[in-house]
Amino acid sequence: MSDLVSEDHILARIASHFPNEGPDVLLGRGDDCAVLGVSGPLCVSTDLFMEGVHFRRSYFTPEDIGWKALAVNLSDLAADGARPMGFTVGLSLPPDADMALVDGLCAGMAELAAQASVPLVGGDLSRADKLHLCLTVFGQAEKTLLRGEAQPGDVIFLIGRTGLARAGLLLLEERGRAALNEWPIPCEAHLRPAPRLKEGMRLSRLAADWGREKGDPTCGRLGLMDLSDGLARDLPRL
């Protein structure tokens, strides 16, 4: 029998993992809406993370699921050069869910949230046939680094090593978590990707400083995007 007594019980356990405050949070969780202090354009991104589509519980631990669900969203903010301000979580739990699953999801998510200094500001709970998460992240950038800034003739650069997450996926699909013992680097790249927030914010600051130095905010043209769909698919989009 599941030890998930009620929605309030689950919410209280989730709240125990996340502080209800942050430098940009004027009003945290508990009201109809959270309130963020925004001083300029707001960067917003939403991603679904669905069992059987984006992950398998056969080789993802609950902590891995929580981490990656937040990481893929934060990666979108990094691609705009944005500093994270807050995030929300929509969580749909399957019939076999228990408190260990909820705790694991929250622990993995909270670990990355603490590293990124991004508070949980709200969300929702529901039931489903499988485990589904829907996260929305909010951020601000000194200068947004839009992929549409790229022009023919520009220099294209990569940050980090490409292909590791794909290799990890193939290994984990073939051998399960046993692959972690022999091939930890690609498997970890798939299970727990690291969003490039610091690099994105540094590039945003560089582009903004360049524009101020030239006295023209349109200077410092620089476009970024994350490679969540792989280099071959994302490069033509850039």
Radius of gyration: 19 Å
Please, how many helices? 8
pLDDT averaged residue by residue: 92
Oligomer: single chain
pLDDT under 50 segments (min length 5)?
Answer: none
The succession of helices and strands, N to C, reads HEEEHEHEEHHHHH
- Largest sheet composition: 4 strands, mixed
As a percent range, the share of helical residues equals 25-40%
What spatial order of strands do you see in the largest sheet?
A: 3-6-4-5
| Broad structural category | alpha+beta
Question: Beta-sheet strand percentage?
Answer: 15-25%
Tell me the number of strands: 6
What is the CA-CA span between the terminal residues?
50 Å
Outline, from the CA principal axes?
Answer: flat
Notes on the protein architecture:
The chain is α+β, with helices and mostly antiparallel strands and 238 residues long. Helix content is 39%, strand content 17%. The chain has helices spanning 7-15, 62-79, 99-116, 164-175, 179-182, 184-191, 197-214, 231-237, and strands at 25-27, 35-36, 43-50, 83-93, 120-127, 132-140. The protein has a 4-stranded mixed β-sheet with strand order 3-6-4-5, with helices on one face. The chain has a two-stranded antiparallel ribbon with strand order 1-2. Strand 4 (83-93), helix 3 (99-116) and strand 5 (120-127) form a beta-alpha-beta unit. Helix 2 runs parallel beside helix 3, helix 2 (62-79) runs parallel beside helix 7 and helix 4 crosses helix 6 (184-191). The radius of gyration is 19 Å and the shape is flat. It starts with 6 loop residues before the first helix and ends with a helix. The model has no long low-confidence stretch (mean pLDDT 92).
